[in-house]
Amino acid sequence: MPLLKSKYGTGLTAAKKTKLLEKIRLASAVKASRLQILKGKTLYRGNELSSFTIDETLSTGCLIIASAAGVIAASKVIQGLTYTAVALGTGGNSITITYVDPGVSAPLSVGVVGNAITVNLAHDGIAITSTANTVKAAIIASAPSSALVSVAGSGVSVLTTQVSTALLGGSNTSTFDKADIIEIKRLRTKKYKIILNGSANPAA
Q1: Which residues pair with 37 in a beta bridge?
Q2: Calpha distance 73→87 (Å, rounded)
Q3: What backbone phi and psi angles, to 5 degrees, belong to 113?
C-alpha cells in the first residue's frame, strides 16, 4: 500500500498537511534526496535540499526548508539602488558595496576584490557627478561586479559617498506556513513533491 495517494489537491486542511508531511518525513527515514520543493518556477530537489522539518510551535505550523544551495538571496538598498546577490544563500551576506569620492577629476569606475565592490564615483574636478543611473550601468557593465550582484532601481540625483555596506538577509533556510502548500504529490520515482504557492513569503 503506497504511503500517499498520487496527489492531494487544494482542499488539504492544516491538520491533514501536517499528517502527510510527517508521513513523508518518517516513512523509511526519508532523506532530502527524495524530496522536491517547488515554489513558483524555482525547484529545489535532490542534493540541493539538506532537510525539512515541521514546526508546530507556531499557531499554524510551518514547513522549514534547508537548502545546501541556498534559498534566499541577500540584498541591500543603497541610495535608490537595490543590490541583490546573484547566488542564493548566506554567501551573499559577505558582499559589500562602497562608494568613493576620488576628490579630483576622474571618470566613474568599478573595482572588485573578492566580494568587495568599490564604485569610484565620477568627479568633474569640483564635485561628484555620478547618479544612480550611471552607477547602475557601470555595475552591470563590469563582469566581476555583475557576477556578484544584480541591480534594480533608478535615479538622476547625484550620489554621495557610502562606507562599505554589506548585503543582508541571505539564507540557506526558509520557513513557510503550511497554508502556502497547495499540493503534495507522490511521484512514480518514489520521491515526494511539495508544491508551494508561487507568491508564498517566508513566515515572520
Answers
A1: 44, 194
A2: 6
A3: -130, 110
Reported as a single tens digit per residue, the pLDDT across 148-162 is 999 999 999 999 999
Strand-pairing partners, residue 55, are 62
Sign of the torsion angle spanned by Cα atoms 38, 42, 47, 53: negative
CA distance 82 to 80: 7
Q: How far apart are CA 16 and CA 178, in angstroms?
A: 10
For the chain, what are the domain ranges? 7-71+172-196, 75-166
Render pLDDT for 114-126 as a digit per residue (tens, 0 to 9).
999 999 999 999 9
- Burial class (CB within 10 angstroms; exposed 0-12, middle 13-18, buried 19+) of 127: exposed
pTM: 0.73
Per-residue pLDDT, 27: 56
